[in-house]
Write a structure and sequence with these properties.
7-stranded mixed β-sheet; Rossmann fold; alpha/beta; 332 residues; 2 domains; 19% strand
């Protein structure tokens, strides 16, 4: 039988149509809401430093993706920079070289390292206070227009100032203690200062460059202040024991920006759940990986809940009376 070119062309066309429909559902639309069969997603996690808040965010992120993708369909390369920004760069560059599907930057320096290293791999941040400040975006719109999005750990600063005033209405001097190397800590200090001043307090900031200065700076703050405020600050959180060993003997109570730091050295906090924040970031990662969401247009998300919490043992030691409406921080 003589086979013409026309017959061959028709056969190829039919085969092409058959393959095309094989990838579709009954209505001819592809199922884009499920992970591709057999696909394993490789995700790099760079965590700036180990402490309760960042640990909880990483855990929430990881467990959410394992639940949504299946444990066999996602692999995590989780590395901790031990508080060193140069190590963040090394870690993130290894993720980029390995061409991972997504990078999580947990902590400002980790996010900055990933952002500097690649414009192609989608990046999510978590435990970041203000993305415009962290990424030096002057015209902040709520999203980056780059390969970055994520979640913010910013609790309402005006409400934190009101909490300090509720607990210590009669004191005069508030000392704000934070790490000058953390841009988002400075942002919080600058933002909350007017709220303290409007309440009638005299406010002074005390900054340390790194962990080597924490003790001396904390001592100076205690000598000159009636009560201290420490925002969400990774260096402070990782040195909370040092701060507590100075502030408690000096009988100086501390209001903190988050629960983990409060547990380490504070009396009270208006805090988010970092585990919930990590879960929210995991949901965003799923949307990018599976549904093809455009990370550059994803608005930064915030923790859904804030809670007034206190450290019962430290409050008792310092004679701080906690009114109703506060939740005791678990000792575990």
């Amino acid at each position: 039988m003589k086979i013409t070119k026309k017959v061959i062309a028709l056969g190829l066309a039919a085969l092409t149509m058959s393959v095309g429909f094989a990838g579709c559902g009954e209505d001819g639309a592809s199922n884009s809401n499920s992970p591709a069969e057999g696909k394993v997603y490789n995700i790099g996690i760079c965590q700036l430093v180990q402490h309760d808040a960042l640990d909880a965010a990483t855990k929430g992120f990881r467990e959410t993706l394992e639940e949504k993708l299946g444990k066999d369909n996602v692999k995590f390369d989780e590395q901790n920079a031990q508080g060193d920004s140069a190590t963040c760069t090394t870690i993130c560059n290894s993720f980029i070289t390995s061409k991972y599907d997504l990078i999580l930057g947990n902590g400002t320096a980790a996010l900055q390292a990933a952002y500097t290293g690649t414009q192609d791999i989608p990046i999510l941040g978590t435990s970041i206070t203000h993305y415009g400040t962290a990424l030096d975006i002057a015209d902040w719109k709520g999203y980056t227009e780059a390969n970055v999005s994520g979640t913010s750990d910013l609790a309402p600063l005006e409400d934190q100032a009101k909490m300090l005033n509720e607990l210590f209405p009669d004191v005069k001097n508030v000392g704000i203690v934070y790490c000058s190397a953390e841009a988002n800590s400075k942002y919080q200090a600058d933002t909350i200062t007017p709220f303290f001043e409007d309440a009638g307090y005299t406010v002074k900031s005390y900054t340390f460059a790194d962990s080597n200065d924490v003790a001396a700076v904390t001592q100076a703050a205690c000598d000159e202040s009636d009560v201290l405020y420490i925002p969400t600050d990774n260096t402070a959180a990782s040195n909370a024991g040092i701060i507590d060993n100075i502030a408690q003997p000096a009988k100086k109570p501390i209001i903190t920006g988050e629960e983990g730091l409060c547990k380490g050295c504070g009396v009270a906090t208006l805090s988010i759940s970092y585990y919930e924040l990590g879960q929210q970031t995991g949901e965003m990662a799923y949307d990018i990986l599976v549904n093809g969401a455009d990370v550059s247009k994803m608005e930064i998300k915030f923790a859904p809940n804030v809670t007034k919490k206190y450290d019962a043992e430290r409050c008792k030691a310092l004679g701080v009376q906690i009114p109703e409406g506060y939740e005791a921080i678990s000792a575990e």
